[in-house]
Amino acid sequence: MIRMASALFALLLILPVTAMRSAENPLVGTWKLKSYVREVAATGERYNERGEHPNGYLSYSADGRMYAIITRENRITPREVVPTDGERIKLFSTMISYAGTYTFDAEKVVHHVDISWNQNWTGTDQVRFYKLDGSALAKNFTDGREGRSILVWEKLKP
């Protein structure tokens, strides 16, 4: 009984800290992808890298964990439950997915990736610069080519 009371007391001590961190962290919550635009540095050309209406969710929790999943619009639907090798390639090439922990400051968030759709990202830090504009989060990052990707996310209401 004393152990249970001690555990409950410890939990009660942690809860206000979590709530405080959540209130101080404007990123905490779930975000839905609104647009994904690629800008080529050499030409200034902009295009919708994942289609006109990409799909995606990004979530930041108060305990410092995050996940992201992005898919291109109009992905193929495999003919069977188990995709063929060709279908798998098409499905893999139309998504981004990873999770891990994160740290942030007023202008950037760093995703410390510990699981990923692309094993090259696992164990890396992915730096994302952002700007909050009301309930919109605009993030940009590079994909190895000269240029940047500009993603706009809308925070979902609880």
Report mean pLDDT, rounded to a whole number.
82
Strand-residue fraction? 35-45%
CATH topology: Lipocalin
In whole angstroms, the N-to-C terminal distance is: 36 Å
Uncertain runs? 1-20
Structural write-up:
With 158 residues, the chain is of the alpha+beta class. It has one domain: Lipocalin. It has helices at 2-24, 85-92, and strands spanning 29-40, 46-48, 55-60, 65-71, 95-104, 108-116, 125-133, 136-141, 147-155. The protein has an eight-stranded antiparallel β-barrel. The longest helix has 23 residues, at 2-24. The radius of gyration is 19 Å and the shape is globular.
List keywords for this structure.
158 residues, alpha+beta, Lipocalin, eight-stranded antiparallel barrel, 2 helices, 9 strands, disordered N terminus
Annotate the secondary structure layout:
Layout: H1 2-24, E1 29-40, E2 46-48, E3 55-60, E4 65-71, H2 85-92, E5 95-104, E6 108-116, E7 125-133, E8 136-141, E9 147-155
Antiparallel strand pairs: 1-2, 1-3, 1-9, 3-4, 4-5, 5-6, 6-7, 7-8, 8-9
